[in-house]
């Protein structure tokens, strides 16, 4: 298995034609997904209100309220979780895109 992968990465002339043809399409799909998820993330950030009152609790010694303890169960927590999920997804897709771009450029040959 690893020998086949090694040969695939090092020998672009022996690579099947469908790989060279499909990688630009896959890269375009990944770019489209990154753009879509970025727009979702921007809208979620603009919709979320500022987080007031959590920074001074350590200084004043005030205890947390029921609202701040159960933040993940309300809409603000869901928006925050959506932002985190979108950011992680963008990071993973970007890494995958650049790995694909580094290994298989648009001509189908290895760099």
**Topology pattern, helix = H, strand = E:** HHHHH
- Unreliable spans are 106-111
Number of helices: 5
Distance between the termini: 22 Å
What's the overall geometry?
A: elongated
- DSSP E strands, number: 0
Largest sheet, strands/sense/barrel? none
Please give the share of residues in helix. 55-70%
| Beta-strand proportion | under 5%
Mean pLDDT comes to 75
Number of domain units = 1
Rg is 22 Å
Question: What class do helices, strands and sheet pairing give?
Answer: mainly alpha
Quick structural summary:
With 111 residues, the chain is mainly α. The chain has 5 helices and no strands.
What can you see in these coordinates?
This protein is mostly helical and 111 residues long. It has one domain (21-103). It is 69% helix and 0% strand. The chain contains five helices and no strands. Helix 2 runs antiparallel to helix 5 (75-103). The chain is elongated, with a radius of gyration of 22 Å. The model is unreliable at 106-111 (pLDDT under 50).
Topology of helices and strands:
Blueprint: H1 2-10, H2 17-47, H3 57-60, H4 66-69, H5 75-103
Helix pairs in contact: 2-5
Search tags:
111 residues, 0% strand, 5 helices, mainly alpha
């Amino acid at each position: 298995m690893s020998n086949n992968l090694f040969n695939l990465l090092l020998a672009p002339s022996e690579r099947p034609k469908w790989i060279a043809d499909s990688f630009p399409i896959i890269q375009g799909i990944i770019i489209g997904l990154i753009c879509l998820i970025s727009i979702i993330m921007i809208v979620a950030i603009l919709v979320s209100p500022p987080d007031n009152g959590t920074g001074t609790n350590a200084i004043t010694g005030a205890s947390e309220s029921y609202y701040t303890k159960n933040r993940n169960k309300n809409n603000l927590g869901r928006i925050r979780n959506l932002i985190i999920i979108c950011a992680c997804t963008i990071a993973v897709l970007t890494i995958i895109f650049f790995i694909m771009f580094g290994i298989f450029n648009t001509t189908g040959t290895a760099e």
